[in-house]
Amino acid sequence: MKVKLEAMKCKSDDKDSALDKKTDELRKQLQENMDEMDFMESSNQVLFIKERKSNDELQEIHKELINGLLQHGGARAHIGLKRMGELDPKAFSIACKQILPADNADVIAAILCSKWEAETKNPEWHPFEVVMVGGKEMVQIFIYD
Q1: Of the residues 64, 67, 83, 113, which has the fewest C-beta atoms closer than 10 A?
Q2: Which residues face 140 on adjacent strands?
Q3: Whole-prediction pTM value?
């Protein structure tokens, strides 16, 4: 467009009004295109800056996550996931009613149920262990008193 405009200037020495109109139209079109290009460049720059900030934040979070995992379990930490359901309080109530007086059974069942729920949320907890009794392996289950 700039080349066309320059060519038109050279030809406009005869003061042709049609040519002047065409030149003005080309100037306006050129100015609009340049304004649009400036707007696109500024928009592109803004988006580029936002992308860089987001990338920097993501890298920082990534480093913090790695450092946190290394602090809590070492480089070879095994992250285990368990899907646990809720404990059935009725089962605790029935078991307690069989071995305890009826007036205390429900209270003790509720206490035991809440303790077992707390323990099942702890990944380090194991409710039993294998022990040697009289040369035989036996499983010992931990029950609260």
Answers
A1: 83
A2: 129
A3: 0.36
